[in-house]
Amino acid sequence: MGTKGILFLLSQFFYQTIIAQHSKIYYYNQYFEPSDSVNAKFTGLLLQENQKWKFTVLNINDKNILMVGSYLDSAMKVKDGLLEFWYENKFKKNEEQYSNGKPNGWWKLWDEKGRLIDSSLYSNGELKLKTASSFYLNDSVSMHLFRDITTKRTYARYYYDSGGLMYEVEFLKGIEIERKNYYKNGQIKNHFKKDEKGKSIFVKRFTESGDELSEKEYQQQQKELRKQLEKEFENFKEAVVKNAPEFDGGKIGFQTYLNQNLKIPERVLRENIYFDVITIKFHLNQDGKAINIIIDGVNDAELKDVIQRFFEGIPRWDMKGHKTYGPLTYKIKLLH
Considering only CA atoms, which of 28, 50, 49 is closest in space to residue 38? Predict the structure, then answer.
C-alpha cells in the first residue's frame, strides 16, 4: 500500500475515534424511560459542537425529530441556548431559552393544532412577562391574557365565539381596577373604573345603540329584565311540569295509592319509633316503572325491603314520550 493510502486510512481512523469520543447514543421506550436498542421507540444523539453539546431526540420508526437542545456539559445538566420540542404530528410543541442553566428569553408553548397558547419572558432566571390564549371548539379565540410580573398588572380580553370582543379587564396587584363589557354588535355595554384600593371612580352604562344610561334608567331596565326572566322561568317550569311523566291521578293519585297500599308491619313501626321521615329517590324507565330505587333515613333491613318491593310494584307511569326520567323524590312520614 502506498504512503497516500496509509495516510487516508489513518485519517479515517482518527476521525472516527474523535466522533466516538465526542458523541453518545441513548435509547428510550414509549414512556421516554431508558431502554435498550431492541425495545426502544425513541433514540437520542448527543454530539459535541465547539464548546457545547447538542442533543437530538427522534422517533426511530418515522425519523421525526421530537427534541433538539443545547447544553454546556455532556451530562446535560446545564442547559444553554435554545431547546425545541415537537409533537409526534410534527407541530412545534414548545421552545425554551437558557443561559448557563437559567431561563433567559422567551419560552413558548403551542397546542397540537399549532396554535400559540402560552408565552413567558425570562431574564436571568426571573419571570418578567406572561401571555396566554385559549380557543373555542370552532378555533376562534376565546381569551387573551397579558401579565406584567414586575408591575403586577394583568390584562385580559374575552371574546364571543363569533369573534367579537365580549369584555376586557385590568387587574393591579390582584384588584380589578377597570372593566369594559361589550354587546355582540361591538358597542360598549358598560365601563367600570376603580382606584388601586378597589374604590369606585366611575360607572358608565350604555344602550345597544350607544346612548348612555343614567342610574335611574339602568335600574328601571334591570327591573324590567328581572320581570321578563321571572316570566320566562315560570313558563319553563310550567312546560316541564306539563311534559313530565305522570302517575294516574297525578300527585294526589300517587299519594292516595301510597297511603292505601304501603303496609308496614307493626313490629317495624314499633322498632323504628325514632324514624319520622324516610326519603325515596328513583328513576323511571321507558316502561314507566320505578328503577334505581334509593332509600335514605332508615337502617332497618325489613323496613327497607318493604319499601323497596312497594316501589318496584307500583303501576306504570305515563312517560309522555320520555325514554327515561328522574330522579323523582318522595318522602314518607311514619305514623306510630
Answer: 28
CA distance 161 to 164: 8
Strands (E) across 162-242 are located at 165-172, 175-182, 188-194, 200-206, 212-213
**Residue 39, C-beta contacts closer than 8 angstroms, at least 6 positions apart:** 29
Integer Cα distance of 268 and 274 in angstroms: 11
**Cβ–Cβ under 8 Å, residues 115 and 134:** no
Query: Which amino acid belongs to residue 188?
Result: I
- What backbone phi and psi angles, to 5 degrees, belong to 132? -150, 150
CATH 3.30.2420 fits 250-333, yes or no: yes
Task: Pull the grid cell for residue 144.
Answer: 387573551
Q: What is the pTM of this model?
A: 0.64
For residue 322, with 0-12 CB atoms within 10 Å meaning exposed, 13-18 middle and 19 or more buried, which class applies?
middle
Convert the pLDDT of each residue in 217-227 to its tens digit. 989 988 999 99
Question: In the chain, which segments carry CATH 3.30.2420?
Answer: 250-333
* Phi-psi category of residue 177: left, alpha or beta, with phi > 0 → left and psi -120 to 50 → alpha: alpha
